[in-house]
Amino acid sequence: MTAINPFESAMKQLEKAHTVLKASKKKLTNIDRKVAVLRVPQRQVNVTIPVVMDDGTQKIFEGYRVQFNNARGPYKGGIRYHHNVSLDEVKALSFWMAMKCAVADLPLGGGKGGIILDPKMLSQGELERVSRGYGNAIADFIGPDLDVPAPDVNTNGVIMGWMVDEFLKVQRKKAKAFGVTLSKKDERKLTSTFTGKAIKDGGSEGREEATGLGGLFVLQAILKRLKLKGTLTAAVQGFGNVGYNVAKFLDEAGIRVVAVSDSKGGIYVAEGINPALTLECKKKNGYLAGCYCSGSVCDLKKGKQVTNESLLELPVDILVPAALENALTRENAAKVKAKVVLEMANGPTTPEADTILYKKGIPVIPDILSNSGGVTVSAFEWEQNRKGQHWTKTQVNQKLAKKMADAAGAVWDASVTHKTDLRTAAFVVALERILTAMK
Ligand code: NAD
């Protein structure tokens, strides 16, 4: 099997939307010239981070920050730690961020970062040193009005805290060189350079679970339009921040989550898992296998082990890829039995798989819509930091619900208007907004 390049997939999606938009009655000026600009990132930063390891040796890590497009506002996007991070992956993710922020109608553009590393191989001290090194290395390229990073796979609020600290050190030093001392207000605004921070460091209520909750709001809006009702079942691939939270919110909304998985494999519990107990069990054991937690107990008799491959082929109503790219490909898409795919990971479906699913009549709710809840609450955090406010969780979730309902409605309407699938519709909505903002 040849490796699938996510950036090539992203460009195919762009091309499809470009064709649909051109064929429509929309009057956009210089569309071809502007789309050509959208095929390349505006800036790519490569950084090297020398780190003294616990054993005294030095290791040099490689990282990236890609700033794809800022026509609608500062670049915005997470930082990923993974051994498979590559420049093309970061380019694809930064492009999707530009599209996602436009679908959610946020005043932000698209960026993304990543470091090639396996966090499981590093001690906490080594992780902190590499994170601080990265924060320092990209400090000249980010800022509240320039580029606003956040967590992604294998990064979190603690890591954001280290990076904010490094970023502030660099800014204080620069100010000092001009004989200026940064005021508290200046520093508060500068902390809005990073979102997804811990609450004590200026993070927003609800940010940690925002991607999962946003996914539920989008799903509910689309299910209503698909007229899919009754007791529904779901399988979730990935049990990290996004996978766990989406499983929790689906369960709370009365959707029976019968299977979940992580990188080591998955579990199937016919009567539906208890997400919180399952997470507790996974944390205790270090893996999911055997965590057949349903109702208020975990019992080996309640479930069975499934592979990641077979989870994708389960006869459930809703399939939720919430791990990494390229989960659904031309090899397995024909075997999908779900009635709807809710993409919570970024880029989990290749363009070939998309075509197969479309022909099978399985709607795919695209990543740039379904997982946009995370960046939406990140945008709320950015706004709160800048205004010196702290909103309650209820305020945050109400604003999120409205944003997700509006975005899902716009995408659905575009799919009807242009007689196209939901992904192309989402790209058309985003593209139109970005092209309008471009000079
Ligand atoms: P995470 O690191 O918290 O969790 C990733 C999970 O995926 C882990 O449980 C891991 O074991 C599992 N996994 C890895 N490879 C797998 C495989 N082959 N099969 C099954 N499971 C596998 O990361 P996250 O923040 O939950 O992000 C997951 C996805 O959601 C990514 O694509 C990310 O870009 C996207 N996303 C995250 C956010 C966010 O707010 N965190 C927002 C939007 C999109």
Explained architecture:
This protein is α/β, with parallel strands linked by helices and 439 residues long. The protein has three domains: 1-39 and 423-439, no CATH class; 40-191, Leucine Dehydrogenase, chain A, domain 1 (Rossmann fold, 3-Layer(aba) Sandwich); 210-370, Rossmann fold (3-Layer(aba) Sandwich). Helices cover 46% and strands 17% of the residues. The protein is built from 15 helices and 14 strands. The protein has helices at residues 6-23, 31-37, 87-103, 124-137, 157-177, 184-191, 207-226, 241-252, 275-285, 308-311, 351-359, 367-370, 372-387, 393-417, 422-437, and strands at residues 43-52, 58-69, 75-82, 110-116, 147-151, 233-237, 256-262, 265-269, 293-294, 297-298, 303-306, 318-321, 340-342, 364-365. The strands form three sheets. A seven-stranded mixed sheet has the order 11-8-7-6-12-13-14. Strand 9 and strand 10 (297-298) form a beta hairpin. The two termini are 42 Å apart. It binds nicotinamide-adenine-dinucleotide. Residues 151-154, 211, 237-243, 261-263, 308, 322-324, 344-346, 371, 374 line the site of nicotinamide-adenine-dinucleotide. Nicotinamide-adenine-dinucleotide is lined by residues 151-154, 211, 237-243, 261-263, 308, 322-324, 344-346, 371, 374.
